[in-house]
Amino acid sequence: MTTTIQTPETILEGPFGVDGLIKSTDTDGRFGLVEHPIAPRALAGPMHVHRHEDEYSYVLEGEVGFQVGDDVFTAGPGQLVAKPRDVWHGFWNAGDEPARVLELISPGGFEDYFVELAPLLQPERDFEGMAGLQAKYGLEMDFSSIERLTRQHGLGTP
After folding, report:
1. Contact call for residues 46 and 148 (beta carbons, < 8 A)
2. Contact yes or no for 92/47 (Cβ under 8 A)
3. CB under 8 Å to 134, separation ≥6 — which residues?
4. pLDDT digits (tens, 9 = 90+) for 139-152
5. Region of residue 26 (phi > 0: left; psi between -120 and 50: alpha; otherwise: beta)
6. What is the pLDDT of residues 36-94, one digit of tens each?
7. 0.70 exceeded by the pTM?
8. 62 and 150 in contact (C-beta within 8 Å)?
9. Among 49, 50, 82, 101, which is least packed by CB within 10 angstroms?
10. Are 11 and 113 in contact (CB under 8 A)?
11. Mean of the pLDDT values across residues 96-108?
12. What are phi and psi of 115, to 5 degrees?
């Protein structure tokens, strides 16, 4: 990777956003880095598991709730949360103010999932395409967790 100034690329906008910061193609596949802006009381990710990547979430601002395995907790600015591969996890904005999280993904490549996901969400959600994309990236999602997480943590309806 050469020394450059990176300009974030907005990949997804909405209550859960994705801004691309470092592509794995710039790190010889070692990692990718994205930023997640999360609206107040919004579910960022229902319970899901990655088969190929570890994720590390560094909270920049706000209070972010996490469930990693059976552990449920909140992290604030300056705190780092590890989400190892093969461990079910979910996360949400636990506060009434916007939150921002830096997400380091290792090895890299999963950041491309969000690029490929964006067109499947507009104008209507392409659930068949989303299922194929999840399989491609070794991602399994538990959509039934949305109702539970929303109810337990006082989140808005996604």
Report:
1. no
2. no
3. 140, 141
4. 999 999 999 999 99
5. alpha
6. 999 999 999 999 999 999 999 999 999 999 999 999 999 999 999 999 999 999 999 99
7. yes
8. no
9. 82
10. no
11. 98
12. -65, -45
Q: Which two tokens stand for residue 133?
A: 């994309």
Rounded Cα distance between 68 and 82, Å, is 8
Of how many residues is the chain composed? 158
Amino acid (one-letter) located at 131: A
Task: Tell me the three-class secondary structure of the chain, residue by residue.
Answer: CCCCCCCCEEEECCCECEEEEECHHHCCCCCEEEEEEECCCCEEEEEEEECCCEEEEEEEECCEEEEECCEEEEECCCCEEEECCCCCEEEEECCCCCEEEEEEEECCCCHHHHHHHHHHCCCCCCHHHHHHHHHHCCEEECCCHHHHHHHHHCCCCC
Q: Which CATH superfamily is domain 12-153 in?
A: Jelly Rolls (2.60.120.10)
CA dist., res. 75 & res. 111, Å (int): 23
Tokens of 63: 């209070």
Residue located via tokens 């943590």: 153
